[in-house]
Please model this.
Amino acid sequence: MDLSNIDELRGALQLAGLRPRKGLGQHFLVNRQSLEAVMAAGKLTPNDTVVEIGPGLGVMTAPLAERVKQVVAVETDGVLVALLRRHLPKNVEIIQADIMRFNLNQLPAGYKVVANIPYYLTSAITRLLTEAENRPTVVSLLMQKEVAERITAQPGKMSILALSVQYYGQPRLLETVERHKFWPPPKVDSAVLQIEMYDKPLFEADRSKLFHLIKAGFGEKRKMLKTSLAGGLNIEVSLSIELLWLASLDLTARAQELALDDWRRLYNAAIKRLVL
Model:
C-alpha cells in the first residue's frame, strides 16, 4: 500500500476506523517527491539511527527503514502505535510517548532526526533537539514555512528563535511544500528545514545568561537596543550604552539587526561589567 497516495491513505484510515485528529496537528503528507526531500535532508547513511517524530501511519517510516540501520519512531497516538506495530520491519522500534517527555539520552551518539512535525509544537521540538545534552547531528523537519523562514533569518530580521537555533547549528530552508500536498490540507504552506548541528555551540557562554541578555534586547522590539537592554536588565541607559560601546556596536542598533557574533561581544561586555 502506498500511503503517499491520497486515495490509499484514506482507505487505510477508513479500514482502521480513524480520521485525522486536528488536536494532534495530524496532516498527512501525500506527495512522494516531498517525502523524498525530507529524507534526503537528513543526509542518511546505512549505519544511522534515525528518530522519526510522529510517524502517523508510517508513510515515511518504511522507506526510512530501508535506508538506515535503525528507526526509532515516537508516536503519541495509541491507535496509530498499534497499527504501526503490525506491519513495520524489525529495524523499526515504535515507542508510544510524547516527544517532549522522551529521553534523548537513551539514543546512540550521532543519531539523526527526520520528521513531519505538528505546527503547534514546532518551536518546542526545535528547542528540545538543539538544547539536548545528547543532540542529533542532523535534523530534517517538515514545518510551517513561515517558521522555517524565521529560523533561517539573517541580521535585519533576526528573532530569539533564529538565534536559539543558529547558536547550535546551521539551518537551511531547502524546499517549499505547498499545502495541497497534505491531507487534510493545512491553512499554510510548509518547508523542509535542515539543521546541521555544530559539535559544540558557536561560542562559549552560560546559556541562561546569554539568552537572558538576548530576551532583554528583544523585550521592546520597536525601541533601540540601548533602551530595551536598560529595561530588560534593569540597568541605567548610560550603562547599556557603555555595553554597546564595549561590544563595538552602533548606539542606534536594534535587536533584530544583530548577528550572533554581535551578541557574543555584547555578552562578554555584560559579563565584564557584572551586568549578568
